[in-house]
Specification:
The chain is an alpha+beta fold. The protein folds into 4 domains: 123 residues, membrane protein fhac (Ubiquitin-like (UB roll)); 82 residues, Ubiquitin-like (UB roll); 75 residues, Ubiquitin-like (UB roll); 408 residues, Porin (Beta Barrel). The protein is 17% helix and 41% strand. It has 11 helices and 30 strands. The strands form 6 sheets. Strands 13-14-15-16-17-18-19-20-21-22-23-26-27-28-29-30 form a 16-stranded antiparallel beta sheet. Strands 1-2-6-5 form a 4-stranded mixed beta sheet, covered by helices on one side. Strands 7-9-8 form a 3-stranded mixed beta sheet, covered by helices on one side. A hairpin with a 4-residue loop joins strand 26 and strand 27. Helix 4 runs antiparallel to helix 5. The two termini are 36 Å apart.
C-alpha cells in the first residue's frame, strides 16, 4: 500500500513557479544541497501517514497558497543524518502503537529535477502486540461500588483482551484509576502500572498495583497572590470547606470557578500531600492566583464594508473588574458611527447621505449570586441604526431606522462542561425614517417585546478559539409573551451541533443548526384575501412583518452561508414600509420575476421566516504559524411556514479562505462560489446579485465561522 504525503510538481506547475519567481523573486537552493519536494510512505497500513510525517524533522518545502515552493517561504533542505533519526522516530512511534517489530528504512531518493528530491520511507510493520491478561491488584478491600468504578476505568481506556496494546491507553488507564480513587477521597492512593510483553506470542500482560491508603479530608485553605483584591469572593467561588471529603473533581471545579470570575489571568488550586501521609489524613489546599489588570480603557475604531453597507465607527469602552469591591465586573461600551449610503460592494458608489448611528451598552456582573458558582447580571443597551437588509438600492425607497432599548436580567452557571444562562429580556424598538418618509413608514408603531431566554452549551472542544478536535452541543429557547407583557407571543428554539475531527495537522470542522419559530400573535404571511396595495395589507405589514424582522430567522453572512450577504437566504417579497408606493397594477405588471420590467431594488426585500436550517463543512490546513487556509461548503434555507423544511434548493456555496492569527482570534477572508444549479438564478426574486460578474460572495470577519 502506497501513501503519498504531497503531490509532485507537474511541468505546468514548474512553469508557473518560474514565472512567479521571475516577477517577484524567490528563495533558491544552496549549491551542494537538495530541497525536499515531498515524502512518500510505502507499507503504511495501520497508522496515518500524516501522523508519521508529524513525527519527522524532515518536512516537504511549504507552498505559498498551496501552489508554489520557494516563494515567500524558504525551501526545506535534505539532511541524510536528520532523515536517519526520523526513521528511528517512526519506529518509536510504531512501538507506542503496539508494533514492537516495526522497522523503517530509507527507500528511493528520487531527484525530481535539479537539486529537488522526493523521499521515500519504507515501513515493515510486523504483527501487533495484543492485550492479554489485565489485572488490578489491591482493590479487594474497597467498597463494591468503588471497586467496580476502578475496573470500568481500566476497561474504558481501551485495555481489553484482544485489543492492540498501545502506550496511550496504558498510561490513560493508570491516570483514570488514580482519578477514580481521588474522587472518592483517597488522596494518598498510589497506582503503579506494569506490562510484560511476550514477543513470540505477541501478547502483553498488564498489571496495575493499587495501594488505596485511607480516605482523606480537605484541610485549611491558603490563598496567595491576591494583592489588593478581597479574599471572601475567592473563598466563596472555591466552594470547598475544611473537613469536607477530599475530591480531585472538586479541586478542578474550584480552579475553573476562579478563572470564570474573569479577574485572574491564572489560577492554581493545589493539594499539599505530605509523604508519609499524616495520621489524620488531612490535605491542606494552596490557591495561587495572578490578577489581571482590574481597570481597562478601550479606544479604537473600524470599517465595515460589505454588499449591504459601508460603516465607519469609533469605539470607546471602560471595564472595572472590582466595581464597588466584591469582584463585580462593570462594563461600558459606546460605538458612534456613520453609514455611508448607498456605498457598498462591489460598485462602491459615491455616498449621497451620511446616516448617523450609535450603540451604547452597559453591563454589571455579580459573582456568587444566590450560591457560590452562580453569576448574576444586568445588561442594558440603547442603539440607533438604519435597517439595511438588501444589496439592492432604490434611490426613491425610504430608509427606516430604529431607536432600540434593550434590557436583560439573568443568571448563568457552569456545571463541568455544561454552561447554562437564563434571563428575562425586554426590547423596545421605535421606528423612524432616515430618508424618504412615506405614509407606510409613518404608520409604523413601536414594537415592545419581552421574552425569557434559556441558552445551554455542552462544550467538549479542546480549545474555544482554535478547536482541533471534540464537539459542541448548544441550544437557545425563547418564550415570548404568554403571561408576560409584549406584542410578540411565540416560542423560538434553535439547537446546533459542531464537530471537529483532526486530520494530522489539519482540522475538519462541521456545523449543523436549525431554527423553529411558532408565533401565536402574528403571522409571517398576510391573511387570506389581503392583497398588496390595500390598507389591510399595510396594517398587517406594519405590525406582523415588523415583528418577523425582530423574531424571525435569516441566513447568510460571514458566520452563516458565506456565498450570500446577511439576510440573503430566505423568502423575499414586497414590504410597504421598505418599498416605495407601488400601485397594485404596477405590482402585477412591473414586479413579475424574469420579466424586463422586474426590478429587485423596487420589488423585493428579505422577509425572514419561521423555519431555518444551515449545514457547513470546512477543512482548515495550517500553512505557517500565522496563516491558515480553509476550504469550505455552506448550505442553508429559510422558509416562511412553521416547521417547513425544503431541501430542493439548498443555496449551496463552496469556496476558499485565508486566516491570519491574532490574540483575539483569526482574521479571516472567505470567497464562496454559489453552485448555479442549487441556487436562485438571475431574475429570481431572491437572487443576491453578482460580484465582478460572478455568482460569488465575499465574507470578512474575526474569529472562526464556527
Amino acid at each position: 500500500m502506497r501513501m503519498t504525503a504531497t503531490a509532485r510538481l507537474t511541468p505546468i506547475g514548474l512553469v508557473g513557479s518560474a514565472v512567479v519567481c521571475a516577477c517577484t523573486g524567490c528563495a533558491s537552493v544552496p549549491p551542494g544541497r537538495s530541497a525536499v519536494d515531498g515524502i512518500d510512505f510505502e507499507g503504511v497500513r495501520s497508522v496515518s501517514s500524516s501522523d508519521l510525517e508529524a513525527k519527522m524533522a524532515t518536512t516537504p518545502s511549504p507552498k505559498f497558497l498551496g501552489l508554489a515552493q520557494g516563494f515567500v517561504y524558504d525551501y526545506e533542505l535534505f539532511d541524510p543524518f536528520v532523515f536517519q533519526r526520523d526513521l528511528e522516530r517512526i519506529e518509536r512511534y510504531y512501538r507506542a502503537q503496539g508494533y514492537y517489530e516495526a522497522r523503517a528504512r530509507a527507500g528511493r531518493v528520487l531527484e525530481v529535477y535539479d537539486r529537488h528530491v522526493q523521499l521515500e520511507v519504507v515501513v515493515e510493520e510486523g504483527r501487533p502486540v495484543l492485550v492479554g491478561d489485565v489485572r488490578v491488584n489491591g482493590i479487594d478491600a474497597l467498597p463494591d461500588a468503588l471497586r467496580r468504578t476502578v475496573e470500568r476505568a481500566v476497561a474504558s481506556s481501551g485495555l481489553t483482551r484482544g485489543r492492540r496494546f498501545e502506550e496511550t491507553p496504558f498510561s490513560a488507564a493508570e491516570w483514570r484509576v488514580q482519578r477514580a480513587l481521588e474522587d472518592e477521597g483517597y488522596a494518598f492512593a498510589r497506582v503503579e502500572r506494569h506490562a510484560e510483553v511476550d514477543l513470540p506470542h505477541h501478547t502483553a500482560a498488564v498489571t496495575f498495583d493499587v495501594t488505596p491508603d485511607e480516605p482523606a479530608t480537605f484541610g485549611p485553605i491558603t490563598v496567595r497572590g491576591l494583592g489588593q483584591l478581597p479574599e471572601d469572593p475567592v473563598r466563596r467561588a472555591l466552594d470547598i470547606r475544611q473537613g469536607q471529603r477530599f475530591s480531585a473533581s472538586a479541586l478542578d471545579s474550584a480552579q475553573q470557578a476562579l478563572l470564570d470570575l474573569g479577574v485572574f489571568s491564572s489560577a492554581a488550586v493545589t493539594p499539599v500531600r505530605a509523604d508519609p501521609p499524616p495520621a489524620d489524613r488531612v490535605v491542606p489546599i494552596v490557591v495561587d492566583v495572578s490578577p489581571t489588570r482590574l481597570r481597562t480603557v478601550r479606544l479604537g475604531g473600524g470599517l465595515e464594508l460589505d454588499v449591504i453597507k459601508t460603516d465607519l465607527h469609533a469605539l470607546a469602552g471602560w471595564t472595572n473588574q472590582n466595581f464597588l469591591g466584591g469582584m463585580r465586573r462593570f462594563d461600558v461600551d459606546f460605538r458612534p458611527g456613520a453609514v455611508l449610503y448607498p456605498t457598498r460592494l462591489p460598485e462602491l458608489q459615491q455616498p449621497r447621505e451620511v446616516l448617523p448611528e450609535e450603540r451604547f451598552r452597559v453591563s454589571l456582573q455579580q459573582p456568587g449570586f444566590i450560591e457560590a458558582r452562580t453569576q448574576g447580571y444586568l445588561h442594558g443597551a440603547f442603539n440607533i441604526y438604519p435597517l439595511l437588509i438588501t444589496p439592492n438600492v432604490d434611490p426613491q425607497a425610504p430608509v427606516v431606522g430604529y431607536r432600540e432599548a434593550l434590557g436583560a436580567a439573568g443568571v448563568s452557571r457552569t456545571f463541568w462542561k455544561l454552561y447554562a444562562d437564563l434571563s428575562y429580556n425586554v426590547q423596545y424598538n421605535s421606528p423612524f425614517a432616515y430618508l424618504n418618509e412615506t405614509p407606510q413608514v409613518a404608520a409604523l408603531q413601536p414594537a415592545f417585546i419581552t421574552y425569557v431566554d434559556l441558552r445551554t452549551t455542552f462544550d467538549l472542544r479542546d480549545s474555544k478559539l482554535h478547536p482541533h478536535e471534540g464537539f459542541l452541543l448548544g441550544d437557545e429557547l425563547q418564550i415570548a409573551g404568554g403571561v408576560l407583557p409584549g406584542e410578540a407571543q411565540d416560542i423560538r428554539v434553535q439547537p446546533q451541533v459542531r464537530a471537529y475531527v483532526p486530520i494530522g495537522h489539519a482540522t475538519f470542522a462541521t456545523r449543523a443548526t436549525t431554527g423553529l419559530l411558532f408565533p401565536t400573535s402574528y403571522s409571517s404571511v398576510p391573511p387570506p384575501g389581503v392583497m398588496w396595495g390595500t390598507p389591510e395589507y399595510d396594517a398587517w405589514a406594519a405590525r406582523d412583518q415588523q415583528l418577523v424582522y425582530f423574531r424571525g430567522f435569516f441566513s447568510g453572512g460571514p458566520s452563516s452561508n458565506r456565498g450570500y450577504p446577511v439576510y440573503g437566504v430566505g423568502p423575499h417579497g414586497l414590504v410597504p414600509f421598505l418599498t416605495p408606493s407601488i400601485a397594485t397594477r404596477q405590482v402585477q405588471t412591473e414586479c413579475v420575476p424574469n420579466t424586463p420590467t422586474f426590478d429587485p431594488a423596487r420589488c423585493v426585500q428579505p422577509l425572514g421566516g419561521l423555519t431555518m436550517w444551515e449545514l457547513s463543512g470546512e477543512l482548515r490546513v495550517p500553512i505557517t504559524a500565522q496563516f491558515e487556509e480553509a476550504t469550505f461548503c455552506d448550505a442553508s434555507d429559510v422558509e416562511s411556514g412553521e416547521a417547513t423544511y425544503v431541501f430542493g434548493r439548498p443555496h449551496l456555496s463552496c469556496g476558499v479562505g485565508l486566516r491570519y492569527e491574532t490574540p483575539v482570534g483569526p482574521i479571516r477572508l472567505d470567497v464562496a462560489y454559489r453552485i448555479p444549479a442549487l441556487n436562485p438564478q438571475p431574475g429570481d426574486v431572491d437572487y443576491p446579485g453578482d460580484i465582478l460578474g460572478l455568482p460569488i460572495g465575499v465574507a470578512f470577519g474575526i474569529g472562526e465561522a464556527y
